[in-house]
Design goal:
Layout: H1 3-26, H2 34-53, H3 56-74, H4 78-107, E1 112-116, E2 123-127, E3 132-136, E4 143-147
Helix pairs in contact: 2-3
The structure holds zinc ion.
Zinc ion (ZN) binds next to loops.
Length: about 150
């Protein structure tokens, strides 16, 4: 066997050992989930901002985020971490949806007038320039007059 073949073989053995050691280490641990990954991404973003602005506390927060993210991945309390991730995801998608809705409202602002139902505060819209209208809220069925 040539020298390089021996090196290759040794490396292969090393990585397969390291891989199974890693697998043993991670066994029963929570591992990566969306919350941990998003915390890492946020940590990197804050770190870059700290570098750009020279505002040191941001770097500290980013290190805190890495540590918390690592703690979550290595945690053996799978149930608790899963619940945290589920809660986080539902808040994340709600916020994302709200953001997309505000973008839509902003895009359509010339065509539609947006306002809140005086009863349930749901956001309603009507075409601009349609004058005084009798509005029925789609959510609570409250009726009122509104000028567009
Ligand atoms: Zn309503």
């Amino acid at each position: 066997m040539s020298f390089w073949d021996q090196v290759k073989q040794k490396l292969a053995v090393f990585f397969s050992k390291a891989g199974s050691a890693m697998q043993r280490f991670m066994y029963g641990r929570h591992g990566a989930d969306q919350l941990s990954l998003h915390l890492l991404v946020l940590g990197i973003a804050l770190y870059l901002m700290a570098m750009l602005t020279g505002f040191f506390p941001l770097a500290l927060i980013s290190v805190g985020l890495y540590i918390y993210s690592a703690f979550r991945m290595l945690s053996k309390n799978h149930l608790k971490r899963t619940n945290e991730n589920t809660k986080y995801l539902s808040a994340y998608y709600k916020t994302k949806q709200k953001g997309q809705q505000s973008v839509m409202r902003f895009k359509n602002r010339k065509e539609y007038k947006y306002f809140r139902c005086p009863e349930c505060h749901a956001i309603l819209r009507m075409k601009r320039g349609s004058g005084m209208m009798h509005v029925t809220c789609g959510k609570c069925k409250h009726q009122f007059d509104k000028k567009a």
